[in-house]
Structure formats: C-alpha cells, structure tokens
Predict the structure.
Amino acid sequence: MRTRFYQTDAEVPSPNRRLRSLATLLAFCALLLAPSRPLRAQVESPLNARSNPAILQGVGIDQRLNHQIPLNLTFRDETGKTVALGQYFGKKPVILSLVYFSCPMLCTLITNALAHSMKNLDFTAGKQFNVLTVSFDPHDTPQMAADKKAIYLNVYGRRAADRGWHFLTGDQQSITALTQAVGFHYKRIPGTDQFAHATGIIVLTPQGKISQYFYGIQYPAGSLRLALVQASGDRIGNPVDQLLLYCCEYDPTTGKYDFIVARMLQVGGVITLLILGSIIFVVARAKPHPQG
C-alpha cells in the first residue's frame, strides 16, 4: 500500500471544523485545571531525629509562627549603647540569629552561612531588611560584638549593612525573654564556657511577628528571598517573587519552601489557555481561500 503525501480539497478541514477542534482542546485543558487537592513535593524532615544524648535533651527550636516577640526588651549594641528591640522594627522584615560570640564552632558556621546567603541576594541589609545577631551568653561584651560585626561586614561587603546588621549583647533576663519568645532552647555544658544549642535563623515581620524558621547551617538564597518577601507583606520583591510564592508553600516541619505541584500545573495551564485562546482568535478571523 502506498502512503499518500497529498490531500484532496474534501479532506482539508474547514475553518469551522478547525475552530470546533481547538475549542474542544481548550475545554479539555480547562478540565485539567479544575481545583483539586494540592499535591506537595515531599521533603524528608530533619526533625525526625533519633534519641538525643542527655546533654541535648531539651535543646532545640519550638516553632512559634505568628507569635509576637517583645519589642520592649533592651540590649546593648556593638558600641555599648542600650537599645530596645523595637527600634529595629517597623518598616522592614528582620532576620534574627541567636549565637554566642565565643562559640568555637557552630555559631561561626551559622553566621558564615547567613553572610554567604545574603551576598547572593540582590536585597541588601539596611535597605530591604535588617539583621539582628544576638548573643545568648550574658558574659559576651559589646567589644566582642563589635569585633564580630567588623569581621562580617567585611565578608558581606556592602556599605548599607553598617546600619542594617546589628550585633547585640544583653543581660540574662532579656536573653531569656527573647529566646523563650522564639522557642529557642539551649543549655550550658557543665564545666565549660560553652553551650549546647540548636542551629538556625528566624525571619520576622516588620511588626516583630515570627514568619519563618530556617534550620541547620545552610540557608538557600532563593528561599531566604521568598521568606523576606512574604514577611514584608509583599512590599519588597517583584512580580516573579509573587508568582514563586503562589507556586510554593512554607513547610514548618522542614523549615523549607516546597513546590505545590497543583499550583504549578495551574500556572502552566493558564499559560496554555492563553496560547490556545490566541490561536482560536487567529483561526476565527482567518478567511477561507477561494476555491480554484
């Protein structure tokens, strides 16, 4: 049997038939976009840990999302000046990291990771957001805070950060009130000047409410950007950030953003519908060729 490489005039679909076919395809795509239960990409939670050694019992982070931290607490900044937490809030979201300045290991990793993530953002500390690095060791001094600030401002390398990244120390009462407010639990290791503590950072709204937690010692710049945009009430960022936030959801069990498969399909489907709609419009306006 020979394969035909031509069509007769009778086999050429009329504009009306083409229009009906495209309309059917459009309706099928709309059916696929019908609301359904969201499908979330699954990420293994780092909190599913095995039994902890005795020294780590009670150490960790309890998420207190949307909880208001006390903005009337007083600390000392790196110059030794007494400051209230509230003066760092009001207009911008805030990244809070809880460390102690004589920490030989984890705290350095936390602050290094935060500085690295911030360098990969086109947002700048002091402009779109503020950063508070607060010591939970009441023996840390403003001079130690000043030394740390000098090191990390040099690592970060942006001038605005001098007024946007603050290193604070305080007395035990203020430290306890702040750490309890954000659910941060730590212990002094007996016989040493060191502490057992969790690792992570916290993103707060301009009003001082807890918005997101990030666990561990790696804070992907993309996720941190989304958290800042969300905490700001969409006052910073661009339309792409809003689209990404629509297609993502913060998972408090992992401290990460997960893609929402159903939403991604909806966004892709809307784009498909727009393309098909344009094709239908063009076909509907096309004039049939005169018969020869």
About this structure: The chain has two domains: 54-234, 238-285. The two ends are 30 Å apart (CA to CA). The chain has seven helices and twelve strands.
